[in-house]
Amino acid sequence: MLEVQNIKKYYKVGETTTKALDDVSVAFRKQEFVAILGPSGSGKTTMLNVIGGLDQYDSGDMIINGKSTKTFKDRDWDAYRNNSIGFVFQNYNLIGHLGIIDNVELGMTLSGVSKEEKREKAENALTRVGLKDHMNKKPTQLSGGQMQRVAIARALANDPDILLCDEPTGALDTETSIQIMDLIKELSNEKLVVMVTHNPELAHKYTDRIIEFDDGKILSDSNPYTEQVQTDQFNLKQTKMTFFTALKLSFNNIRTKKGRTILTSFASSIGIIGIAIVLALSNGFQIQIDQTQSETLAQFPITISSVTIDRSSVGDTEEEETEEYPDTETVTAEQSDQEQIQHINNIDEEYVDYIENIDPGLSNNVGFTRSIGMNLLREVDGEVEPVSFSNAGSNDSSSAITSALSTSTGIGVSTFPTQLDDSNGNFLEDNYSLLEGNYPKSPTDVVLIVDETNTTNIHALENLGFELESGDELNFKDIVGTTIDLVANNDYYTELPTGGFVPNTDYQSIFDNENNQTITVSGILRVKESSTMDLLTPGIAYSNDLTTDIIEQNQNSAIVQAQEDSDINVMTGEPVDETTKGSLMTYLGGESMPSSIMIYPNNFEDKEEVLNYLDEYNEDLAEDDQIVYQDLAGTMTELTGGLMDAITYVLIAFAAISLITSMIMISIITYTSVIERTKEIGVLKALGARKKDVTRVFDAETCILGVTSGTLGVLIAWLVTFPTNYVLYQVTDLENVAQLNPLHAILLIVISTVLTMLGGHIPARMAAKKDAAIALRSE
Ligand SMILES: Nc1ncnc2c1ncn2[C@@H]1O[C@H](COP(=O)(O)OP(=O)(O)OP(=O)(O)O)[C@@H](O)[C@H]1O
């Protein structure tokens, strides 16, 4: 059945070598009761541990059912202990946090026996040792004798061939000892029982065979046996503990130290709480910022002006190292910084076409600004007078600033955007409600824009010929239907014999000209409350088509032709430079290209694609030919977004420090737990647990701790968001700023679990490496 041949087991500590087993050879029968007797330190326990596969011999061989164990790997030894061996120890070695039945089932749990079978076998074993009525107790609720019975039941439960008992009655009184010995004697009728004892009397009374040990050698053997050659096939069923079993085992253990677990989880959740709150706040702030941005910034279009600033070139200009306060007698001529970053966009027909081809799904509205002068006349109270669609007062300098602002921001314009796709909504109808009259139907229909309080610019009305004081109220009907004559350049300007031009001042006669087009104020529009595109400045607004029509009509007019050929202002006779001439030509309608283009993306998200589309145009162009656009909203978003990100990262970094601290703490706690559970590790190993299984038990424990602390952290952080939001609402009027993203919450729990498991894994590995024999000897 079992035979050891020339087994040696030496322990080397420092200089001294202890020969615990010194060339021991002995064979055991399949069924007998063997006592190993000997003085303390003679090697009895070592012999038992070697036979039981808890300790490995240095040299020699052990043969089980004819099979040599020389080639045994760790997992074979684990399986051997689990399948073939039952251990009974002097001090019982029950696992305190498990119930009696769980202790008995443990070996079977390790080998993956089904729940029902396990329970049945455990109950049978407990019945056999006479503990049927105590099955539901905890080990601590039993007497010493009863505990040893549980240990015997545990050893029996998996029905091993060999029962190894190390001084099973050593801790018991005489009467209880007798009961236990009777029980073991009974078991020896069906199994090989090897019992280590100090007590020769007990050995002689109960056992069939006495082997005496001294100094690691066999002194005598009362009933030697020579093993016949066995042909039995020796098969081992590998043990395997599932992670779930490990979890259950650890959960039971953790349950016995609730207070410590709660405190640990809370302490290690602080890092998670910190990160979760930072994330919740930054998430909420970002949502607020994004909302505000997409609401308010959507109206900031992408602007393309003929003269613009090339931001990308800021800082590009090569600053030569120039000496300060030099002694030279020369002056260096250099362009100003502004000039260096100024970029002239050559907006030509090709580019305008390119813009008009933007996917209407991305941006359906494009505004073109053409600073053109219109020759307008209106009959007021029987008298014809010149009027204009301008908001400028008679001596108003602010209008220049407003118009400069509107060309760069796209807000406060008078030309409503052109729709790229007519079938898809209508800019005016979507954003402005009609108070009176009609939405414009033709290019010659203009509208009066009023703000939320039905107020419009007084100059807009004055310039149309209405006589008003500030604060006066005008009936809708007095405005809607007003007609204005638009006069062509050729009819409006008179050529002087000198070649100069002057506006004809006989308004009545030009007014009666049949060539004139009639412009009608078709309606009064007010911006809708829901509108995110409040672009038009209060006053008269007209379509881009009207300006292009006027340009078409006037492009070949006499005054335009004359101005084109001349370097003096044909109206004033003053000499003009290129730029002034350019704006003069534009004013007279001689320039058909817009001075600026504003693209209004449909929403904040589509803007990126529009920008890509614009970038594509520039791809193969030389730097000077590129069209540079301004994206004011983008610049602002980058600023705020970047700032928010930076703040978030810094705060998370701080919170992460506490996460690392808690990770270290968990390692220490796991380490303590490993020390505390050393005995348990020994027992698990004696029952056949693999290294992996032991690691698993502790990994499972840290896993539970990680999940608990992560969940606790997220839960606390979530609860904290309520008072935080309340306070923030009181202080800033912003609602629900702190919002814990569920995805972040889950991620944090996962991070907490992974980190704590990482922190606990090293102590867990240490536990697995513990020598089973040493672990069992520990107190
Ligand atoms: N892990 C170890 N490291 C070093 N020496 C050890 C180790 N384990 C046992 N020994 C030594 O091996 C010898 C045999 O020890 P063992 O425990 O087998 O003796 P024993 O006969 O069972 O003694 P006792 O009856 O007191 O339990 C002893 O001298 C002991 O000091």
From TrEMBL:
Residues 310-336 are annotated as: Disordered. It is a multi-pass membrane protein. GO terms for molecular function: ATP binding. Residues 316-327 have a biased composition (Acidic residues). It comes from the Bacteria. SMART domains: AAA. PROSITE patterns: ABC_TRANSPORTER_1, ABC_TRANSPORTER_2. The chain crosses the membrane at residues 262-281, 646-671, 700-722, 742-760. Belongs to the ABC transporter superfamily. Macrolide exporter (TC 3.A.1.122) family. This is ATP-binding cassette domain-containing protein.
